[in-house]
Amino acid sequence: MQWYLKNLYYGLDMLKWAVEKNGYTISEKLELKDLQSVHPSLGIGFVAAQDIKEDEELVTFSKQNVLCLSNSELAKIPEVVALPGWAALLLTMAYENSKPDSFWRPYLDVFPSTDRITSPFFWEEEKKKKLLSGTVLESNQDYKEINDLWKNSIDPIKQQYPDLFSNVSFDDYARMAAVMLAYSFDTKKPATKEEKDNSKEISNKSPTSKEIEENGESKKEEDGDDDDDDDRSEEEDSDVESEYDPEQFEKSMCPVADMFNGDDELCNIRLYDLEDRLTMIACRDIKAGEQVWNTYGEIDNSELFRKYGFTKPKGTPYDFVLIKGEDWLSEYIKKIGQEEAEERLEMLLYKEVLSNPEGDFTFSADDLDYTGICLSFVMMEKKGKVSHVPKKTEIQPKHYRKLLKVIENRLQMYPKLEEPKTLDEENAVVLVNKEKNILELLYDNVKDNLAQKTPSKRRKTEEED
After folding, report:
1. Higher-confidence position of 212 and 348
2. Torsions phi, psi of 269, nearest 5?
3. How many CB atoms lie within 10 A of CB 456?
4. Which of the four, 7, 159, 260, 447, has the lowest number of CB atoms within 10 Å?
5. Angle, CA of 411, 413 and 417, to the nearest 5°
6. Under a CB-based contact definition with an 8 Å cutoff, are residues 287 and 39 in contact?
């Protein structure tokens, strides 16, 4: 049996379990189908079996029926509770998968095997260098962070509680990490009895998508990210997965809800996080036979590939390219020293010329503003102690020429990829070409600006006459 047909079989089995054993309500207007023929990265997903009207409620489930630490017996173990939320969820997932008779078995069986994970999570460094050199993802260390976490935190817990975790392996823990990146949600913790008593009475009637949007309860992305970072937990922030304030949110796996493929432009259904339940509501009319799409949110191609294992060939509106501090700082450090360079970077950061102390700059097709990096060149060239950030008027043609050289060097960092023969190579080509396109746009803008600020010899002679 081909892997995607097997997954479809397990998926249908999981839907039956979700309804009969786990309290899920699923509309008869949804049909689970094999979408492999549409694109290899889609696998299985939902299509409309009948016409669906905007605001129809298609999937509903209680927060008690999601896979998370608080719904697990592991919530009684202090060492597990002390882990970052996402790490605790991974251990919960791996623990349940280590039990043949786990209540969550029909759901766990739907998770992709390691060889079916299309993200670069398991790529060897050699492959990463060959296909992703120069890109935003070239220095990604998701797998290393999981490996370090296992050695420093998970394995000691495993040794302390052998009766519980003897069958939990690192390989499965790592696989769960790749699965979590693609399928997890940040769900609001249910209100306490006291909070409920102090709040207005909750109606049993499902609100419309517009009403929920107005109340700010829409889950805009599958993994819970949205534009408001104020609720993020800085202590538990990770390169693998960021999360909301753990006092208010919990990293969770939501059966059925995570089986909808996502596309920000095609999105026709949203997951809404209500007080005691989660519900998926159509946000526009959907015709019979049309695929039902959730959204991954406003994220760029590199993040789509890192988490979900696919790219959009035409790119996304959020694609960007990175010029790192190491791409332009080294020659200045040789002249003024590391300590002085760091002090100047701090000043640039304080004045918001920089967004991080490493001296990195990001550019996108819609934001090619290179004033910041040119001001940084001016700052680093100053002699002696510097007490303030230079003005824009101090930027000279030589600084534009410097930036052109930096861009030329950056373009040389990308691999020379031939016609792609595999899905991995296809995704890499999309990422590399998009980043190069943005750098080339930036190069042309700088070059045009330099031409305007540098008079030709003929024009200069005429002005002198």
Report:
1. 348
2. -145, 145
3. 9
4. 159
5. 90
6. no
Q: What's the per-residue H, E or C state across the chain?
A: CCHHHHHHHHHHHHHHHHHHCCCCEECCCEEEEECCCCCCCCCEEEEECCCECCCCEEEEEEHHHCECHHHCHHHHCHHHHCCCHHHHHHHHHHHHHCCCCCCCHHHHCCCCCHHHCCCHHHCCHHHHHHHHCCCCCCCCCHHHHHHHHHHHHHHHHHHHCHHHHCCCCHHHHHHHHHHHHHHEEEEECCCCHHHHHHCCCCCCCCCCHHHHHHCCCEECCCCCCCCCCCCECCCCCCCCCCCECCCCEEEEECCCHHHCCECCCCCCEEEEECCCEEEEEECCCECCCCECCECCCCCCHHHHHHHHCCCCCCCCCCCEEEECHHHCCHHHHHHHCHHHHHHHHHHHHHCCCCCCCCCCEEEECCECCCHHHHHHHHHHHCCCCCCCCCCHHHCCHHHHHHHHHHHHHHHCCCCCCCCCCCHHHHHHHHHHHHHHHHHHHHHHHHHHHHHHHCCCHHHHHHHHC
Tokens, residue 18: 């979700």
Q: Are strands 25-26 and 57-62 parallel, antiparallel or unpaired?
A: antiparallel
Residue 238 structure tokens: 């990770």
pTM of the model: 0.85
Contact (CB, 8 A) for 238 and 84: yes
Cα–Cα distance measured from residue 250 to residue 246, given in angstroms and rounded to the nearest whole number: 6
Neighbours of 261 (CB within 10 A): 22
Gap between the Cα atoms of 298 and 317, Å rounded: 8
For residue 79, give the nearest of 152, 148, 167, 144 by alpha carbon: 152
The domain segmentation of the chain, as residue ranges, is: 3-198+205-308, 320-459
Q: In angstroms, rounded to a whole number, what is the distance separating the alpha carbons of residues 243 and 235?
A: 10
N-to-C CA span, the chain: 84
d(CA 293, CA 355): 34
Q: What is the dihedral of CA 106, 108, 111, 113, to 10 degrees?
A: -110
Share above pLDDT 70 across residues of the chain, in percent, rounded to a whole number? 82
> Tokens 């701090």 appear where?
346
pLDDT in tens, 180-233: 999 999 999 876 655 555 554 444 455 565 555 555 555 544 444 433 444 444
Total number of residues shown for the chain: 465
The strand order across the sheet containing 277-282 reads 25-26, 57-62, 277-282, 269-273, 218-219
Which pLDDT tens digit goes with each residue over 365-375? 999 999 999 99
What kind of fold does domain 3-198+205-308 have according to CATH?
set domain protein methyltransferase, domain 1 (3.90.1410)
Q: Which amino acid is at 275?
A: E
Q: Which two tokens stand for residue 165?
A: 């975790």
Tokens of 456: 């030709």
Separation of alpha carbons 7 and 5, rounded Å? 5
